[in-house]
Backbone:
């Protein structure tokens, strides 16, 4: 159970299971299981090929809670090989796997399917296989996996939200984050009384003549597996535009008025994000916001929403400082992932702060754009109560180990700190925009991001990134006061060697910028110990006064 909970942490909503001030969320360190390695490792049978496209064609029976269909997987070989590694949960049947008309042999191990080809696949050759499957997928947790629910009026409501647990819980794919298809088609046949809203652009809707209707969606961009989404229900639709970007909204018929009111927040939010992070990344697919029975998820171009049409997070003041109730947390946070998570994706879950730290920081950027700097600073500092500082944000690579919740809150506080390190807002906003554009549609590691920031700023920020992301402890600013001559000595106490970070100290509204290192330095301050302040709302640090 602990294992399952840990994996759900990266689904934002699982944070409800860990209200702030509760017990530590950290499970004990354990060696990775075979399942973790199979799922997490970018092993030889994954690394030998590069995905080109998926064409997923499924039929969903909401009453029988049954799914069947095939995924046509197109990939390019990166070296000569006879075996590849795909994934499908063990409880689902592999009906057959074909290359053309030839049935391929396969071996199943836990949730992995190793496929063996009768002859060597040559490097650079493009291959196509049809992976047929069927079964009753697991419903896990409150949000995880795929769920077959009823809406409050008793109509079927089938939704997917499989981040962490893995998309292979409901469809066969190469279930990892490093390699994405370049584009995808998705065909969903459902009872004709219902509507399917998935990712991408709807190409066609075809009555199959047997009580079922098929929805054909085209996704024109790379997409990570967990974002591929079914939302099958009795949806009402309304739409809007932001320039040439289409905005499409779906909700249950009973909630139409509430949705029209609440979803109006999407437009100013996208405008703010476009200003700071560059153009909406999935314009050809449009932006959609879709009501679901769980709190929400960042499904690419099909953001899902279940925040009760109220501001805050499930009607709570999420960061506890009076700002959260000014906006709908789920609309803002999940949509921010279009830039951070969907466009720029972490190549391994150990680097998931690239999604969550950035999306959480994007909330603060939104607050600043709409409500001003004071609210933004209050908002981000409200997150301090949720940080634990018990384990590094970045976990072990390649073993399917999701980071703790610190990746959200400490991640955002770290980026707020980095802004103060840059100490020039015009440079900061330019940097955020260029980062977002430079790595658009790419799958990256933290090292790529740090390298880019170092080159763009001309600074060596590596020790700062390392201290905040690769160590549990915050940097400690040690201050030593000598009252008789009005001086104060200062240094950083950090785990990372050569840590150096400027910080503003002295008198609020008249800060002095000092550049402490791990060696003692002394400044004249003329301030008493109690008068001497540190800008801890701009730098997330610990201060020790001696
Ligand atoms: Zn998130």
Residues:
């Amino acid at each position: 159970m602990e294992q399952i909970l840990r994996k759900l942490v990266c689904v934002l909503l699982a944070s409800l299971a860990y209200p702030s001030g509760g017990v530590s969320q950290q499970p004990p360190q354990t060696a990775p299981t075979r399942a973790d390695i199979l799922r997490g490792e970018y092993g030889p049978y994954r690394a030998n090929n590069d995905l080109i496209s998926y064409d997923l064609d499924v039929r969903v029976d909401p009453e029988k809670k049954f799914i069947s269909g095939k995924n046509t997987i197109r990939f390019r070989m990166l070296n000569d090989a006879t075996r590849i590694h795909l994934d499908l949960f063990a409880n689902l049947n592999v009906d057959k796997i074909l290359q053309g008309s030839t049935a391929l042999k396969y071996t199943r191990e836990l949730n992995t399917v190793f496929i063996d080809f009768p002859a060597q696949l040559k490097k650079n050759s493009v291959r196509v296989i049809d992976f047929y499957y069927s079964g009753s997928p697991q419903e896990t947790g409150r949000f995880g996996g795929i769920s077959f629910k009823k809406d409050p009026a008793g109509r079927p409501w089938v939704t997917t939200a499989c981040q962490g647990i893995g998309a292979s819980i409901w469809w066969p794919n190469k279930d990892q984050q490093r390699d994405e298809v370049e584009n995808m088609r998705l065909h969903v046949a459902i009872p004709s009384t219902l509507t399917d809203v998935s990712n991408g652009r709807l190409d066609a809707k075809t009555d199959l003549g047997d009580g079922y209707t098929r929805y054909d969606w085209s996704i024109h961009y790379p997409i990570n597996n967990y974002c591929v989404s079914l939302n099958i229900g009795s949806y009402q639709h309304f739409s809007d535009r932001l320039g040439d970007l289409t905005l499409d909204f779906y909700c249950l018929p009973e909630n139409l008025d509430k949705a029209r009111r609440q979803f109006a927040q999407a437009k100013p939010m996208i405008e703010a994000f476009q200003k700071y992070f560059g153009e909406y990344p999935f314009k050809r697919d449009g932006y959609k916001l879709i009501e679901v029975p769980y709190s929400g998820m960042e499904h690419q171009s099909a953001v899902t929403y279940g925040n009760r049409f109220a501001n805050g997070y499930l009607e709570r003041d999420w960061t506890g400082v009076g700002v959260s109730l000014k906006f709908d947390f789920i609309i803002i946070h999940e949509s921010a992932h279009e830039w951070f998570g969907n466009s720029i994706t972490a190549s391994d879950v150990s680097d998931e702060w690239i999604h969550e730290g950035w999306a959480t920081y994007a909330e603060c950027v939104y607050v600043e754009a709409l409500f001003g700097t004071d609210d933004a600073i209050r908002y981000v500092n409200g997150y301090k109560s949720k940080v634990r500082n018990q384990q590094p944000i970045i976990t072990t690579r390649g073993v399917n180990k999701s980071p703790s919740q610190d990746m959200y809150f400490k991640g955002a506080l770290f980026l707020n700190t980095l802004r103060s390190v840059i100490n020039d807002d015009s440079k900061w906003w330019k940097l955020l925009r260029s980062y977002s554009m430079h790595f658009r549609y790419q799958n990256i590691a933290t090292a790529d991001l740090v390298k880019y920031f170092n080159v763009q700023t001309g600074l060596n920020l590596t020790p700062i990134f390392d201290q905040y992301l690769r160590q549990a402890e915050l940097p400690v600013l040690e201050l030593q006061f000598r009252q008789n001559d009005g001086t104060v000595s200062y240094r950083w106490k950090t785990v990372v060697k050569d840590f150096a970070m400027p910080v503003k100290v002295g008198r609020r509204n008249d800060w002095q910028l000092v550049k402490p290192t791990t060696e003692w330095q002394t400044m004249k301050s003329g301030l008493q110990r109690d008068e001497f302040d540190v800008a801890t709302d701009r730098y997330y640090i610990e201060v020790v006064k001696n």
Summary: The chain has a mean pLDDT of 94. The two ends are 45 Å apart (CA to CA). The pocket of zinc ion is lined by residues 12, 298, 333, 337, 356, 359 (CB under 6 Å).
